[in-house]
Amino acid sequence: MEKQVYIDPLNISFARAMEITTYIGLAVMVIFGLLYLVGLSGFVDMKQAIANWNLPVSEFWKEVKGIEIHGYAWFLSNLKGMDCLSMLGICILALAPLLALVAALARAGGQKAYIIFFLIMIAEFVFAIMKPIILPGVGGH
Amino acid sequence: MRVKWLWLFLGFLVLVFGLGGEALASEAAAKGGGLPWWAWPLILFGFTFIIGLIAPMSGVGGGVLFVPLSTAFFPFSVDFIRGAGLIMALTSALSSSPQLIRKGLANIKVMAPVVCVSMVTSIIGGIVGLWITNAFPSGKYYITIALGLVLFVIFVVMLTSKRVEFPEVKEQDGLSSALGLTGSWFEPTLNKVVEYKITRLPVGIIFFALVGFIAGMFGLGAGWANVPVLNLLMGAPIKVATSTSMVIIGVNDAAAAWIYIAKGAVLPMIVVPSVIGISIGARIGAKLAVKAKPVFVKYLVMAIMLLAAVLNIIKGLKGLHVI
């Protein structure tokens, strides 16, 4: 009976891409996150983090690491730390809808309106990712 | 009757856990972080596990309970709480969406036009939220008060909105018709394939823009608002509305998450135990929910949200020395 339901191929492609990326992201986030929590070395010292996590985020990083954070270099350049590797997993999760949109775009065929919608969303997504790098001061502190 | 008492007990646990968290937080602050470091992940795991138990039948995502309760009871900056809430809502949405899409319950074609707009407003909301807390010395207290007020609105929405299982759409608007916003799924309770049509897309887009801003600003999932708009305004059957809302939350939250990641407002130490806790809790909660009375759970969650709203407003006003 369920086979009578027609699901548009772009829906199926979207779902498959999202599912695969989510599994990878979750595995990376949880495995390295747990290694960090059981005591393997991390970029952020947990005791210092606990002592300062009541501060707004900019002050937190000044107190804990003496740095100002703009962009993704803070964890991408410290991938020896388990917490930064866990952050990589979170990034993969946050990329899942983008990859799903690209997969759906590839299957949109002659559906011009949806090709436009997907292109707009992909552009918005890429902007959201790039904004902290290309416009670090806009909207920030 | 047993189920009623079970849910009452769970509600009690949430409050005790929350108050316990506040007490522990005060103690930790007083002793300069006196609690051992490993206690915090365990506290977060237990706290989010209980939220996960309650969330499935309430019609709200875990993030919408996590953010206000954590803001009210835990010592973390509201920035870290919003970051964690956003990742929790994102993880839940990403985990459930593929299956819902394959069944025909979630429809990418309905999601696409509204998300084109709400993704922008969600990103703007994330930027504005972080800017307020960092640019103004007392910004975090204004955010806390605003969060309390938003919770009041959610409370009123939940109190007044009536879900329609299979709304009757006699005629589609021009845009919905041109975009082919129709679909179908197999409904096991009716043992047949149900077909549906979407309408009033232009008005829906305006509502989604507003909801996206609020979700991005406070790190809340937006199921509480997406579902009534899709169901009552746009004519999506309730199952299609809740499922499509999940996909919308996933896309919007993923876009907003980059703002928080780039500002360093996502700490694995908070996020990882919270995601694990809510995931395990939600799996057990989904089984419990089969036996629970949905109306009772809904009222329980509404009571918790009302309490969290009041506590957040009080906390914000105290921070501003108004009371």
Automatic annotation (TrEMBL), chain A:
Transmembrane domains' residue ranges: 20-44, 85-106, 113-134
Keywords in alphabetical order: Membrane, Transmembrane, Transmembrane helix
Lineage: superkingdom: Bacteria
Protein name (Swiss-Prot/TrEMBL): DUF1634 domain-containing protein
TrEMBL record, chain B:
Subcellular location: Cell membrane
UniProt KW Transport keyword: yes
GO cellular component, one term: plasma membrane
Hydrolase found in the keyword field: no
Transmembrane segments: 66-90, 110-132, 141-160, 201-222, 229-251, 257-284, 296-314
Membrane topology note: Multi-pass membrane protein
InterPro entries: TM_pro_TauE-like (IPR002781), TSUP (IPR052017)
Keywords recorded for this protein, A-Z: Cell membrane, Membrane, Transmembrane, Transmembrane helix, Transport
Family: Belongs to the 4-toluene sulfonate uptake permease (TSUP) (TC 2.A.102) family.
Name of the protein this chain belongs to: Probable membrane transporter protein
The organism's taxonomic lineage, starting at the top: Bacteria, Pseudomonadati, Thermodesulfobacteriota, Thermodesulfobacteria, Thermodesulfobacteriales
